[in-house]
Amino acid sequence: MLFLVLAFGANGCTQRTGQNRVPTEVQDVVNTVGEQISQEHYEQIYNDSSDLWKQDVTLDQSNETFKTLRSRLGKVESRTLHSATEQQNSGGALKGHVYILTYQTNFEHGEAMETFTLVEQNGRWLLARYFVNSTAL
Questions:
Q1: What is the CATH number of the domain that holds 91?
Q2: Are 50 and 126 in contact (CB under 8 A)?
């Protein structure tokens, strides 16, 4: 099994879990990133992501990760929210206000769990981490 991940560590946090408590502005970022993946606008994802994302991977690495995902799993057919966790982290890479959204996702060539981690920076929600776990990878 191959894990496809663009990730950072986190520590020292408080969290709340709920499936119906996702703010519209957080869900909008996930929808936008999903559309950008679908349209293969990988550079835009990188440009619109948090500083944390850009510190961990280069534009080329980010693009290659999304291309690999697309070639192995295909396009997203459906995405259903599985869990939503809100955190207030006092330290670590994901310091501050964070949402972690996990989806059960059906792709053209298999099923996966997708995790989007968003951080609030300057009043805006930005992608900090994207993780896909699938036996089809």
A1: 3.10.450.100
A2: yes
